[in-house]
Write a structure and sequence with these properties.
Helix content is 71%, strand content 0%. It has 320 residues and is mainly alpha-helical. The relative contact order is 0.10.
């Protein structure tokens, strides 16, 4: 005989659909509870400095207020109007954008070429190359900068020594940093060298997700290597490529340590990007509020890039 139903047990619905179980409130809140410690940690590290930066940018804080602890006078938007009306600021901004664009193009272009090359290598060579990339990626910035300072040394640098071996060329004693264009070529090489491992490993992982069946079918139909890449490979790796390029834009726009260390902790004005310009205004000119205002403008310039990056992440999640 069938067991009679009690009053607490809901019976089947009229259409024969089994009854739904209500999800408990604890289960709905569980994801938020799991990420709460991370949110608290990020807020503790970043929230107070960000709020302090915003407040200071509307004040006129100098050395006296720093040492005495007095409240700096409020100046409203004067810091921003002075900065935006300064021709030097726009010159530094243009230099920063150009430097970032060159670094991103070289990083993504070389990274994609190396990632495509890794597909054609044998397993042990690919593992060896991956290990070398990870070693370069994990190298501390101070060590990497010291290596590039030695490579570009005017008297004993490897670059000058190799170029000097060319017939009719005397390159020993050449100072790369006397000319900002030549000096920035060394900085770009350092930045690209440190960024390529991330791009190569990321794009190589994306290339492994390209279905081999589609590639083989396109080749059987007579498609060449470029056609296969354009219509089969690229649509698959494009979201990952865009996210890596967006991260490169953010990182290269904020380059600070490479230039600061290469120039012996005292970079010339011709080598200042927005980060160094903000540092110079705050600590060398002791105009802390102006330095924070420049930093805040930099954050606002990168906000659009960050929003684009988040949107790409959300689109990738929807596709998956």
């Amino acid at each position: 005989m069938p067991t009679p139903r009690t009053a607490e047990e809901p019976g089947p619905r009229p259409g024969g659909t089994p009854p739904r179980r209500r999800r408990g409130s604890t289960g709905a809140r569980l994801p938020y509870l799991l990420i709460a410690p991370a949110i608290v940690a990020v807020a503790a590290v970043y929230a107070f400095p960000l709020v302090k930066t915003v407040i200071m940018s509307f004040q006129d804080m100098g050395r006296r207020e720093l040492w005495t602890g007095d409240t700096p006078p409020w100046v409203g938007l004067d810091q921003f109007t002075n900065i935006l009306g300064d021709a030097e600021f726009w010159q530094v901004t243009g230099r920063t954008v150009l430097f970032m664009a060159v670094c991103v193009v070289l990083t993504m272009g070389l990274g994609l070429l190396i990632a495509l090359l890794m597909q054609r290598l044998s397993t042990w060579v690919r593992l060896l190359l991956t290990g070398a990339l990870i070693a370069a990626w994990s190298m501390p910035l101070l060590v990497a900068t010291s290596i590039f300072r030695w490579l570009s040394d005017s008297d004993y640098g490897l670059i000058n020594t190799l170029v000097d071996q060319l017939p009719g060329v005397e390159f020993l004693g050449h100072n790369w940093f006397l000319d900002p264009w030549q000096g920035f070529s060394i900085v770009v090489a350092l930045v690209v060298w440190g960024a390529i491992p991330f791009v190569v490993i990321t794009l190589h992982a994306a290339l492994t997700q390209v279905p081999k069946e589609l590639t083989e079918a396109a080749q059987l139909d007579g498609a060449g290597a470029y056609t296969v890449y354009r219509y089969v490979t690229w649509p698959v790796i494009r979201p990952v490529f865009q996210m890596a390029a967006t991260l490169s834009v953010i990182w290269d726009f904020n380059v600070f340590g490479q230039i600061f260390l290469l120039r012996g902790n005292k970079p010339e004005p011709e080598y200042e990007t927005l980060g160094l310009y903000s540092f110079s205004k705050a600590f060398e000119s002791t105009s802390f509020s102006q330095g924070t205002a420049i930093a805040l403008i930099t954050v606002l310039l990168l906000a659009g890039v960050a929003v684009y990056y988040v949107r790409q992440l959300m689109k990738t999640g929807e596709v998956e």
